[in-house]
Amino acid sequence: MDRQMPDADTIRSAVSLALRAPSVHNTQPWLWRIGDESINLYADRSLHLRHTDPDQRDLVLSCGAALHHMRVALAALGWRSEVHRLPNPVDKDHLASLVLHRHHPNEKDVALAAAIPRRRTDRRHYGAWPVPPQYLSRLAQCAEDEGVVFRVLESRGRFAELITDAAAIHTTDSAYQAELATWSGRHGSPDGVPAHSAPIAEITTEGISARQFAWPALAPAPGTDAASDEAEVVMLTTASDDVLSRLRAGEASSAVMLESTVLGLASCPITEPLEVRSTRDQVQSDVLHDSGVPQIAIRVGWAHINADPLPATPRRPVDDFIRPLGS
């Protein structure tokens, strides 16, 4: 039996990488509880954004991304994770339990872990180079390995319309706007969306736009042009829409974005049209033609040649996320 536990420093190192996972409005809504024989992921629902994320889809997706980041970090540190998802039916916050086994890291393990601190959510225009089909195949395999369907949106016009419709609904929602203002446009805060990461109203040639955060300060790169943006938009879908499906979709989103980073691609999740019930239903019927439940869209492409590297989005201290199991 090779079941063991890493020492405290190794666990701390893994958590420090896991907390680099993207989360809705950079709320970082997770906790890691450390037991004698397992590492456990819990949702921190005190950070639920009630008006942005009314059914907690984004919160669970965020936790799923952190779970995958943790698996990647542990693998590079010499530990394979045996994952038990939703292990405690009486505790809805307990999303996963990781039982660890000794493991010899391979080249892929190291490359994925090295991508974690380099990955950025890049909401700017992308460059004029198409994403090679073989790269999309690699990203699709990453999602499928997590039990999630990966679809490249061939015709994006209707999806762009639904992004605009969702944004219009949010514009008239004062509670949503207050929540957005609370969690974006920040300077020097360890959570929330920094002003330097939010672009000033950039829209691609097909109308695919990033969420409009409060007080955006990220200027477009010199020479960028919406008409030359050759990014792809991919949708991750599941057969059902329960918590387990959302958690797995979050893991798949992390896998796709980290592999994109390994390949040198920029990436940006798109969730706004899936946060509004009416537009989410229309994405499923009009864009996916009822072939799956849309969980998250991701834009992938080459960063523009003139785009400056984005600074890392701040995170709260690692000690904020670690607790003993049972505390």
TrEMBL record:
Source organism, top-level taxon: Bacteria
Family annotation (Gene3D superfamilies): NADH Oxidase
InterPro entries assigned to the protein according to its UniProt record, in alphabetical order: Nitroreductase-like, Nitroreductase/BluB
GO molecular function: oxidoreductase activity
Protein's name in the database: NAD(P)H nitroreductase
Record organism: Hoyosella subflava (strain DSM 45089 / JCM 17490 / NBRC 109087 / DQS3-9A1) (Amycolicicoccus subflavus)
